[in-house]
Design a protein that fits this description.
With 157 residues, the protein is α/β, with parallel strands linked by helices. It has 5 helices and 5 strands; from the N terminus they run H-E-H-E-H-E-H-E-H-E. It has a 5-stranded parallel beta sheet with strand order 4-3-2-1-5, sandwiched between helices. It starts with a helix and ends with a strand.
């Protein structure tokens, strides 16, 4: 059963609705969005082959999705923290799929956090080489933040 108090408040609102709806409001232009989306950034921050594989699949599928709409959207996969293993020449289990994605979709970029790389190099006492096509950025999370501030969509791998 309905509450009589709620019925009254609804009736009161609906009784005043025709007057409110019939009153013309001044036209106010809707401002454009502050930042239009210019790309997609995908963050990988874990050394988990399942997560890494999904992130690479996301990048390829997003590229295909926008290509089907006749759009080319820049996509950047950023490896940070323990996620840098994806772009390490000595450890990446996805070298071949990454090479294929890079060849098929030139709009996809791969970036590794230089800070995370330096920490890993000091810890392991080695020099880490990157896979072909990967680039260094000073701070992975900083790169993600910069791209988001430019209007890029963010996806966590």
């Amino acid at each position: 059963m309905s509450d009589p108090t709620n019925d009254l408040s609804r009736r009161g609102f609906l009784a005043g609705a025709p007057a409110a709806i019939g009153t013309a409001a001044p036209a106010v232009p809707i401002p454009p969005p502050r930042h239009a989306s210019h790309g997609i950034v995908i963050l990988i921050d874990r050394n988990d082959p399942h997560v890494m594989g999904h992130a690479i699949s996301y990048s390829a599928n997003l590229s295909k999705h926008f290509a089907s709409k006749r759009q080319t959207l820049p996509i950047e996969v950023v490896a940070n923290g323990q996620g840098i293993d994806i772009f390490r020449a000595d450890r990446s289990q996805l070298k071949e799929p990454l090479a294929a994605v890079r060849q098929m979709y030139p709009n996809i970029a791969f970036s590794m956090c230089a800070s995370s790389k330096a920490i890993a190099e000091a810890k392991e006492n080695i020099t880490i080489q990157l896979i072909d096509g990967a680039q260094l950025v000073p701070f992975g999370i900083g790169r993600v933040a910069e791209l988001q501030m430019k209007g890029w969509a963010y996806i966590h791998g």
